[in-house]
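Thread title: Can someone regenerate the structure for this chain?

I was given the following input by a collaborator and told the matching structure tokens would be attached. They weren't. Posting the sequence so someone can regenerate them.
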Amino acid sequence: MPREYIVMIVSALPISELRGGIPLALSFGMPMAKAFFLSILGNISFVVPALFLFEPVSNRLRKFKPWSHFFNWVFERTKRNADAIQKYEALGLAIFVAVPLPMTGAWSGVIAASLFKIRFRYAFIAILAGVITAGLIVAAFCMLGIISWKAVAH
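Best answer:
Regenerated them for you:
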């Protein structure tokens, strides 16, 4: 599989997102601009379908006990980290997604947008802005040597 696809897939995964994609691309020897672009593209690729499908799919799955426990856990975890979203809505969502820490990326942004009923266009723009900002932060940390693929993988 081409390394570009691997970077995009890693960037689209819920836990690694672009926090893993950019350092991985750099470890493959890609230039920063390419690493940044592929990671952003991979990280944002699922957002449109997820914004449309998350609520109906989660509502249907919550009728089954194991899924109900899972979604309750996800929703509670997202709510605990979402004070800014409640207060500032789309701007808060962008800030929430922009922080490159676990449970604050685009996937959590989709969940938060659904929980707080943020309209699609505002949610998409906020998540995109947050992803780009997080990408800039991760890229800067990589260039400064603060983050590397070895550190992310362990």
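The CA atoms of residues 78 and 112 lie 6 Å apart.
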